[in-house]
Amino acid sequence: MIKLQTPVNFDASSVRIGLNDKVLVVGSCFADEVGSRIVRAGFDACVNPFGTLYNPVSILNSLVRLDENRRFTDTDCVEMGAGAGLICSFSHHTSFAKKSASDFLLHANEELEKASAFWKSCSKVIVSLGTVYCFHSTINGMVVSNCLKRPVSEFERRALTLDETASALRSIIEICKGKEIIFTVSPIRHLADGAHGNQLSKSTLLLAVNSVVGKGVEYFPAYEILLDELRDYRFYAEDMVHPSAQAAEYIWQRFKEFAVPENEVEKIAANEKAFRASCHRPMHL
Length: 285
Prior knowledge:
This protein is of the alpha/beta class. 41% of the residues lie in helices and 15% in strands. It has helices spanning 29-40, 56-68, 101-121, 162-175, 194-212, 222-230, 245-259, 265-278, and strands spanning 22-27, 44-47, 78-79, 87-88, 124-129, 133-137, 143-144, 155-159, 180-185, 217-220. The strands form 3 sheets. It has a 5-stranded parallel sheet, sandwiched between helices. It has a 3-stranded antiparallel sheet with strand order 7-6-8, with no helix packed on it. The protein has a two-stranded antiparallel sheet with strand order 3-4. α1 (29-40) links the parallel β1 and β2 (44-47). α2 packs across α3 and α4 (162-175) packs across α5. The chain starts with 21 loop residues before the first strand and ends in a 7-residue tail after the last helix. The relative contact order is 0.16.
């Protein structure tokens, strides 16, 4: 038999995620992909309560805020650039933007309150790391989660070093004390950095994660599955950067092999089937 794939083999995770667990999913847009499937499979999950986050420092900052339940105030409100006419914060994805500061704060703090309560009672955390490149404010040096279309002169963009990246991951583990963690490196390619820059970024993330894996901290090889096992442009979306729907579904199936207890596979499959059925519009009313 001719071998047409190089399978990515892995042992079952020591961190098992079952239907009785509460699961926080944070990180890059790959976290949104995995998180949406976790929800559809019937898990009790909170997915990216501040919106999509790409770098380890922004992810750490979001967890710190959840842990402290530190409310957003007027000082956090930022007027978006490019004539958007919207208000957001440097801690949020632009999907949180509103037309006024009062509307933004009301929404942001409502979501924070719910997510903070979830965080304090959750048992498992999935962290999807996208890049080591960060935007630092030239005013106060803080790493922003989103530039909000503000002028480029307001930011300095640089990559975290391996030591800085590993330090951020260790801090994430520390703040998650009492919770189990699965890290993954997003297979989404950041080609704005160039092909070589993207590889350096992903390599730094992989090395940093490898240095912190241990008891209660696992790594799921989503990056390797797409690049080494699927390894074909038909598994990418039209932008040639994001995984296709088929690839995302395939990685989700591999994730279930990795992390879901065998005695819950059948129940989860039934939940997914019920969700798909609920999406079908009746032909006759």
